[in-house]
TrEMBL record:
<dbReference type="Pfam" id="PF07983">
    <property type="entry name" value="X8"/>
</dbReference>
<dbReference type="GO" id="GO:0006952">
    <property type="term" value="P:defense response"/>
</dbReference>
<dbReference type="GO" id="GO:0005886">
    <property type="term" value="C:plasma membrane"/>
</dbReference>
<keyword id="KW-0325">Glycoprotein</keyword>
<keyword id="KW-0449">Lipoprotein</keyword>
<keyword id="KW-1015">Disulfide bond</keyword>
<keyword id="KW-0472">Membrane</keyword>
<dbReference type="InterPro" id="IPR012946">
    <property type="entry name" value="X8"/>
</dbReference>
<keyword id="KW-0611">Plant defense</keyword>
<feature type="domain" description="X8">
    <location>
        <begin position="363"/>
        <end position="448"/>
    </location>
</feature>
<dbReference type="GO" id="GO:0098552">
    <property type="term" value="C:side of membrane"/>
</dbReference>
<dbReference type="InterPro" id="IPR000490">
    <property type="entry name" value="Glyco_hydro_17"/>
</dbReference>
<protein>
    <recommendedName>
        <fullName>glucan endo-1,3-beta-D-glucosidase</fullName>
        <ecNumber>3.2.1.39</ecNumber>
    </recommendedName>
</protein>
<keyword id="KW-0336">GPI-anchor</keyword>
<feature type="signal peptide">
    <location>
        <begin position="1"/>
        <end position="23"/>
    </location>
</feature>
<comment type="similarity">
    <text>Belongs to the glycosyl hydrolase 17 family.</text>
</comment>
<dbReference type="GO" id="GO:0005975">
    <property type="term" value="P:carbohydrate metabolic process"/>
</dbReference>
Amino acid sequence: MARGLRLVFATSLLLMLLGFCRGSTIGVCYGRNADDIPTPDKVEQLVQLHNIKYLRIYDSNIQVLKAFANTGVELMVGIPNSDLSAFSQFQSNVDTWLKNSILPYYPATKVTYITVGAELTEAPSNVSASVVPAMQNVFTALRKAGLHRKIKVSSTHSLGVLSRSFPPSAGAFNSSHAFFLKPMLEFLAENKSPFMVDIYPYYAYRDSANKVSLDYALFESTSEVIDPNTGLLYTNMFDAQIDALYFALMALNFRTIKIMVTETGWPSKGSAKETVATPDNAQTYNQNLIRHVIDNTGTPAKPGEELDVYIFSLFNENRKPGLESERNWGLFYPDQTSIYNLDFTGRSTVDSTKANVTSSNGTWCIASSTASDSELKNGLNWACGAGNVDCSAIQPSQPCFEPDNLVSHASYAFNSYYQQNGATDVACRFGGAGVRTNKNPSYDKCLYITAGSNKTAANNATSAPSTSSSVQIGFPLWISSCLLLAFLPFS
Ligand SMILES: *[C@@H]1O[C@H](CO)[C@@H](O)[C@H](O)[C@H]1NC(C)=O
Ligand SMILES: *[C@@H]1O[C@H](CO)[C@@H](O)[C@H](O)[C@H]1NC(C)=O
Ligand SMILES: *[C@@H]1O[C@H](CO)[C@@H](O)[C@H](O)[C@H]1NC(C)=O
Ligand SMILES: *[C@@H]1O[C@H](CO)[C@@H](O)[C@H](O)[C@H]1NC(C)=O
Ligand SMILES: *[C@@H]1O[C@H](CO)[C@@H](O)[C@H](O)[C@H]1NC(C)=O
Ligand SMILES: *[C@@H]1O[C@H](CO)[C@@H](O)[C@H](O)[C@H]1NC(C)=O
């Protein structure tokens, strides 16, 4: 009896943890400001083909909602700024909208978020004044329909909400926006809704290239930026911008609000002056972003914190005004071919669903510079033992023995294990002691194996599974890290 109870308890605890520990997710924004993009039915097929599970749309278009019925794809739908006035004034306006635009398609179409207004700090102040009343009315309408726990209400922001973002620990909201931000933050905290932000290292780099390195913006930096107040080290701008927001929230004592990135990305083409808007940079940014997010590493200020991110955007949008880059944020051409390859699972090096790879020459796995000696030793022993790696090259007088130190030997062994086990993020984890790199670490006569090299015993394993590449693959790993986190306080 007692045993049965314990089992029930353990099971419900596990279920509870599963609820908390869903893992970070990657979605895509589906902007439709274009006259040449495919119909929603075709887009639905494209989204499924590429294993995209989360989609943000900017309105509640009926064709789109219908197209994604019974697909399992989760939709974030938007209420445009132009509707805020009407939505804030009368509850009945919102009730009618919910009844006509969402409820007929729900729950076949899985709507999980409603964004009320977008980037209001860029809008006239009388529009931003309407946003919180409109959010409250949307919440009330959902509650009447019994959906206020299943569909979260929030609003998206640009980084213009901050008056200061560097160093991250000095992050602060611009007090000019306090008149609507303060009540909004109270609403979010009360209803456990995330703070939604659009983050664009591209603009930060473009507008101050002399202060910021491209590598830092692209998650490729080999050096770190230190926050002098906290000592936290930043290797990329994305993390720094997110932490600036966390610190701004903490400064106002909103410690429970989570951040969600509702847009980020990199344009593949720009005007003559926008020299870094290239397909290579766009691919690098987005692929590194996906790996970073799926890994659940969190940010320096919030290590291990889950972060849901939407990449902007599915298609190039040819009707957008502004600079050339504005019309070139897409991942796909109108004929649904990829502008560049991207693996939305972050788990294989190659997107094998379409086209062939032109610009990736491989990745390697090496020891992290921040790992401790004992972590490295454990990883090394494991790789050469249970991991089945051929470690003869790091024995005395063999080509990879020198330099005779733990970092070098662990790097060699980590990489061999990684290459022989599908070259996935998971295969380079080693309890956090492994990091992936796209620079070949080979030197002199010490040759690190690569996915295609002769030495890879398990060539079968390295040809990444193309169809089974759903995000679920990461399941056991993030569960274990979640469990670990959850149980630590008890032990
Ligand atoms: C905001 O002000 C503009 C111009 O002053 C006006 O046209 C618009 O109707 C106002 N909007 C609201 C929601 O009051
Ligand atoms: C704060 O917002 C106001 C109004 O948009 C703007 O004029 C001001 O420049 C902002 N301050 C900073 C430091 O960004
Ligand atoms: C790339 O794909 C195209 C069409 O699928 C094919 O014709 C071409 O040979 C491939 N190129 C390489 C380098 O594999
Ligand atoms: C890939 O390798 C080829 C041949 O070595 C080289 O020309 C090309 O620049 C490399 N591409 C990248 C992205 O490193
Ligand atoms: C693969 O092995 C063959 C014969 O064993 C050798 O000639 C060739 O150079 C090797 N290729 C690479 C990339 O190591
Ligand atoms: C790899 O595949 C070949 C046939 O394609 C098979 O004979 C071999 O046993 C496989 N090796 C492993 C390690 O699965």
